[in-house]
Amino acid sequence: MRLPPSLREVAEVNDGAWTRGGLEAAGFVGWVTFAALIELGKVPQAGGVYVVIQAAGTEPDFLASNPGGRFKGRDPTIDVSALEANWVDGAEVVYIGKADKLRRRLRQFAQFGAGKPIGHWGGRLIWQLARSSELLVAWRETPDEVPKEVETRMLAEFRAVYGQPPFANNPHLLGR
Q: What pTM did the predictor assign?
């Protein structure tokens, strides 16, 4: 089985590697909201990577409080000034993740955002976006690669273009 091209290979052919079109060319599928994701059940069980994107040109509007779940009473809210510092101007991708089982991981992510007390802390910043209900999720299975290695490579490629990781992958600026 031939693997989809890496985003670096897509970028060599087209400048929009980090757009929906570039990600589709690199083999990402799905493109559904988190609400639809829970109901569709079409996410594969296999391991892979996933991206969360916003509409091109969307300006951030942050909520003062994170509606995500309070696992063990821990509040996922981040100060708005820290969220502003993490924002990546011009980027459609707001989060890159990996999973040994995509269906389980994305279901947990969606449930956390819906306020359920799930122990899912990664990417929690996206739920403080006022239009988080409009974000789209896409995934790519990685049958011949380790998802963590693919995620690490994608984060490095994103950083090479934007000078920093995606908005919700950048917790070191949060002071936590």
A: 0.89
